[in-house]
């Protein structure tokens, strides 16, 4: 599986294990890394003249010296600008010694029309914000508008967090090695990487696994084997029954969006649980979705006892008041034997910020339902203010910390949605689209998650699949999308996943 993401530390470990196992040594890996970048330059930027290779003092710079040598050997006009000198005896020093191109100081670098910049200043070893002549080189490159090929990462982008430290190159193409890094997928770094190409430099799949990485790029390739398909003898309830709680008379649409999405994502039966005052509003807009009155926890429990739905969705169209959170806690304490999982979204999450401790305690009880929380940034900050307020944590680390704290699968939404499980597994989504930045799209997502869990897909994989399907449906529909379009747009996505 090639979807693992390696943090810079894990990548260092992969290098170490590979070199330790032999026969390739450090300079051998560096020659392969530089060779992959040179191949890319020759195939994609054949007319670039000259190529300006910018080299830093570490191994990223070492890759740059290899690139410069190989390009010169291929007849390309190359100028090489360096900041700092590779440490004596290092692989980078060896690469520099093999490079026939004269070294000019970085301060002399000025992009020329028609040129290409190869950014080999800093990669995995970025340790502080860009400053001084490096920042000036970034500014001159942006001003000149010349294309940039970044080696491993655009200098200034943290491979671990996607943060931009001080400033960063904006690459047309980034060539990284063995596997992508979280910083290629997390914003703002992702916006600096351009197209990301992963070059094989001889680090084996087994070595990648041996680093202990527990983070994946979200992709159907690894969750599709768990994607549900109905058994030949299925009936509507065996295909998974989802219950969705509706808001009051002026806020019923969100639950219906969620319910429709659940039905389109394969739930055999979906029930909207509506306050009496909103029954008529819901009834006017529902056909295949079952409608049931529910004005109290007792009403809800009566439904659970009678129908034993697999999954409940609680949040769309509700309000952030404490009683909404108390109702969620009530559902959780009556889950055992009645329903298997609870998807909390929107104000179902915000309302619990009034009773955080009770919620976290309830989530850890042995008989608690499986939980999936789908917060956007604001909701995340309200339920997990300590985690959200810790500037040392990346979005990936925040999602993981929240998943452990709430004993829940966390879908931390955004352009770079992170899905994290309480056991430490995580995924970063990469097919997101700004088309999803539209009212009601989150309600649809919660319905998809619920439907997949109701069809017995494990919660983490279901959440990953739902996030991917949601974005894929939006992409297929295209511009003009509103949330109402998403459930029908899911049809084709489900059909393709089901073959
Ligand atoms: N054998 C290996 O380990 C391999 C490493 N590879 C390359 O090696 C890179 C990692 O090399 P390193 O660990 O040496 O790290 P880097 O080359 O990314 O940077 C480390 C050096 O830059 C300095 N530095 C970091 N940030 C700075 C800043 N903002 N301003 C000024 N100086 C700064 C550090 O003090 C250190 O001297 C990868 O990104 C990849 O390109 C590849 O060649 C594949 C094989
Ligand atoms: K770089």
UniProtKB/TrEMBL annotation:
Binding-site positions, (6S)-NADPHX: 59-63, 123-129, 152, 254, 317, 376, 443
Cofactors: Mg(2+); K(+)
Lineage: superkingdom: Bacteria
SUPFAM superfamilies: Ribokinase-like (SSF53613), YjeF N-terminal domain-like (SSF64153)
Reaction(s) the record says it catalyses: (6R)-NADPHX = (6S)-NADPHX; (6S)-NADPHX + ADP = AMP + phosphate + NADPH + H(+); (6R)-NADHX = (6S)-NADHX; (6S)-NADHX + ADP = AMP + phosphate + NADH + H(+)
Domain (YjeF C-terminal): residue spans on this chain: 219-497
InterPro entries referenced in this protein's UniProt entry, alphabetically: Carbohydrate_kinase_pred_CS, CARKD, Nnr, Ribokinase-like, YjeF_N_dom, YjeF_N_dom_sf
Textual note on the cofactor: Binds 1 potassium ion per subunit.
Ranges of residues in domain YjeF N-terminal: 11-209
Keyword annotations from UniProtKB, A to Z: ATP-binding, Isomerase, Lyase, Metal-binding, Multifunctional enzyme, NAD, NADP, Nucleotide-binding, Potassium
HAMAP family in UniProt: NADHX_dehydratase, NADHX_epimerase
PANTHER family xref list: ATP-DEPENDENT (S)-NAD(P)H-HYDRATE DEHYDRATASE, ATP-DEPENDENT (S)-NAD(P)H-HYDRATE DEHYDRATASE FAMILY MEMBER
Complex formation: Homotetramer.
Protein name per UniProt: Bifunctional NAD(P)H-hydrate repair enzyme
Organism annotation: Aminobacter niigataensis
Originating gene: nnrD
């Amino acid at each position: 599986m090639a979807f693992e993401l390696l943090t810079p530390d894990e990548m260092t470990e992969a290098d170490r294990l590979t070199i330790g196992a032999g026969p390739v040594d450090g300079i051998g890996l560096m020659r392969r890394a530089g060779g992959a970048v040179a191949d890319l330059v020759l195939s994609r930027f054949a007319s670039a003249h000259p190529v300006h290779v910018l080299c830093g003092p570490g191994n990223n710079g070492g890759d740059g010296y290899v690139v410069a040598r190989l390009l010169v050997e291929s007849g390309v006009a190359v100028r090489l600008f360096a900041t700092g000198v590779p440490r004596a005896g290092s692989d980078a020093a060896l690469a520099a010694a093999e490079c026939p191109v004269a070294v000019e100081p970085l301060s002399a670098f000025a992009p020329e029309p028609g040129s290409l910049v190869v950014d080999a200043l800093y990669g995995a070893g970025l340790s502080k914000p860009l400053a001084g002549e490096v920042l000036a080189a970034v500014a001159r490159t942006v001003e000149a508008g010349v294309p940039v090929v970044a080696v491993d990462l655009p200098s200034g982008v943290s491979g671990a967090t996607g943060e931009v430290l001080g400033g960063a190159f904006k690459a047309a193409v980034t060539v990284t090695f063995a596997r992508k890094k979280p910083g290629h997928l997390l914003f703002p770094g992702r916006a600096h990487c351009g197209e990301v190409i992963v070059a094989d430099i001889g680090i084996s799949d087994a070595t990648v696994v041996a680093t202990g990485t527990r983070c994946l790029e979200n992709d159907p390739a690894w969750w599709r084997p768990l994607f549900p398909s109905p058994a030949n003898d299925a009936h509507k309830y065996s295909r998974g029954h989802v219950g969705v709680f509706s808001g009051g008379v002026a806020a019923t649409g969100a639950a219906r969006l969620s319910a429709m999405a659940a039905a389109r994502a394969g739930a055999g039966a979906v029930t909207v649980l509506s306050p009496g005052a909103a029954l008529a509003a819901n009834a006017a807009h529902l056909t295949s979705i079952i409608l049931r009155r529910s004005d109290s926890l007792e009403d809800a429990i009566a439904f659970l006892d009678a129908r034993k739905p697999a999954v409940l969705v609680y949040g769309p169209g509700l309000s952030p008041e404490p009683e909404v959170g108390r109702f969620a806690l009530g559902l959780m304490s009556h889950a055992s034997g009645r329903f298997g999982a609870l998807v909390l979204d929107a104000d179902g999450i915000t309302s619990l910020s009034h009773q955080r401790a009770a919620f976290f305690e309830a989530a850890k009880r042995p008989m608690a339902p499986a939980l999936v929380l789908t917060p956007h940034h604001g909701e995340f900050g309200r339920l997990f203010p300590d985690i959200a307020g810790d500037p040392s944590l990346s979005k990936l680390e925040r999602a993981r910390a929240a998943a452990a704290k709430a004993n829940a699968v966390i879908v931390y939404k955004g352009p770079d949605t992170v899905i994290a499980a309480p056991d430490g597994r995580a995924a970063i989504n990469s097919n997101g689209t700004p088309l999803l930045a539209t009212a009601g799209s989150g309600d649809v997502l919660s319905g998809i998650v619920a439907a997949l869990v109701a069809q017995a897909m494990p919660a983490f994989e279901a959440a990953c699949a739902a996030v991917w399907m949601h974005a894929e449906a939006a992409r297929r529909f295209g511009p003009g999308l509103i949330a109402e379009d998403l459930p029908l747009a899911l049809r084709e996505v489900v059909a393709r996943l089901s073959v």
